[in-house]
Amino acid sequence: MTKCLVTGGAGFIGSHLVEACLEKKSKVVVLDNLSTGRKENLPLSDSGVEFLEGDITDRALLRNIKNQHADLDYVFHLAAVPAVPLSMQDPVNTHRVNFQGTLFLLDTFKDLALKKFVYASSASVYGNPNRVPVREDFLPVPLSPYGADKLAGEHYLRIFNDSFNVPAVACRFFNVFGERQDPSSPYSGVISIFFERAMASKNGINSSLEIYGDGKQTRDFIYVKDAVKAWLHLAEEPGIRGEVFNVGYGSSTSILELAHKVREVLGADIDVNFVEPRKGDIKHSQAEIQKLRDTGLDFDYSFDEGLKRLAEYLEVKVQSES
Ligand SMILES: NC(=O)c1ccc[n+]([C@@H]2O[C@H](COP(=O)([O-])OP(=O)(O)OC[C@H]3O[C@@H](n4cnc5c(N)ncnc54)[C@H](O)[C@@H]3O)[C@@H](O)[C@H]2O)c1
Predict the structure, then answer these.
(1) Per the residue annotation, which of 119, 126, 146, 223 is the catalytic one?
(2) Do 197 and 104 sit in the same domain of this protein?
(3) pLDDT reported for residue 114
(4) Which of 82, 141, 199, 267 has the smallest CB count inside 10 Å?
(5) Which atom, in ligand 1's list, is nearest to the CA of 123?
(6) Domain count for the chain
(7) With contact defined as beta carbons under 8 Å apart, do 286 and 133 qualify?
(8) Residue 294 · residue 245 · CB < 8 Å
(9) Ligand 1 contact, 122 CB (< 6 A)
């Protein structure tokens, strides 16, 4: 039986990863400070998940975890201040968590015989690329402290892979969406916000889909279960290490198209409202995923199937709450 430490496991992507690990009969230890995550996201009772509430910047705590779980096979590191705008408001705190926290984890767990250390990086490392789709070997020019820290984390992963023999790999997530993504923050993924508004409108609450600018900006949205599948595939392939992989579908959808799809999939007659473009918003983001495909990965879903599954989940949730 394998054992995984999942930092940020009470968050959106982390909780899906925990579920997938449990399906593989792994033991799971979650470290999360619940700053944006929620304990309710985790299957705690009788599931074999050990939940530790704490901070990845607490080095004494990390050492304790290492001592108590010296038989860890995997460190899956997703804990982070997860938004570009938050990093603009408070670059120092973001750096402390997103960069220092990553370094502390690498440094603490480097002595264990890990099968893999996997790190959640981000498409934001590319900044505003000259052309899309972006390939892993394009020059990264992050535009925010969030992107800069994610990139620095990638460099440290490579260094610990090469110099300290920590088998490490980084997933550059594009726009991940799916069940349990929290729509309550203005920095949340646009899909969770659009779904929340469209559901509200279906339930008679006056609401609209707000689009910044002309809505022609494009994103590469990937359903969370496929993002997690890619993550575990990269973790479990022993030959893959010291590398960075784009994790998206390699497709591109405009925000305007997305608004139409959300209306359609929920059958919601909700207005679209155009507002001022957001400062610093990237125009186009799309992953080149040949490198990921070459590892033998096939996705289980598609963008449209992910949207459908999310719609079904939310419909059931609303019914069970009413
Ligand atoms: N959602 C996306 O589209 C996306 C895209 C690119 C990269 N990422 C990265 O993937 C990871 C997961 O993102 P998410 O969307 O699930 O966000 P999330 O906010 O749901 O998850 C982050 C988790 O980390 C925890 N956390 C934050 N700071 C911590 C700290 N100091 N110590 C311990 N735990 C801490 C939070 O409580 C939360 O549970 C993050 O690293 C994020 O930067 C996400």
Answers:
(1) 146
(2) no
(3) 98
(4) 267
(5) 6
(6) 2
(7) yes
(8) no
(9) yes
Distance 233 CA to ligand 1 centre (A): 20
187 & 239 share domain: no
Cβ 146 under 6 angstroms from ligand 1: no
State the residue range of the domain holding 270: 177-220+251-321
Q: Whose CA is nearest to atom 10 of ligand 1?
A: 120
Structure tokens, 97: 């968590």
State pLDDT tens for residues 170-179: 999 999 999 9
Here the CATH number for the domain that contains residue 111 is 3.40.50.720
Residue-wise pLDDT tens digits, 26-68: 999 999 999 999 999 998 777 789 999 999 999 999 999 999 9
pLDDT at site 157: 98
**Gap from CA of 205 to ligand 1 centroid (Å):** 30
How remote is the CA of residue 271 from the centroid of ligand 1, in Å? Answer: 31
Q: What is the pLDDT of residues 43-54, one digit of tens each?
A: 877 778 999 999
Q: What is the C-alpha separation between 35 and 174, in angstroms, rounded?
A: 22
Tokens describing residue 217:
């900006």
Query: What is the total residue count of the chain?
Result: 322
Q: Which atom of ligand 1 is nearest to the CA of 35?
A: 37
Which amino acid, residue 300?
D
Whether residue 112 is found in the same domain as residue 261: no
What pLDDT, on the 0 to 100 scale, is given for residue 62? Answer: 98
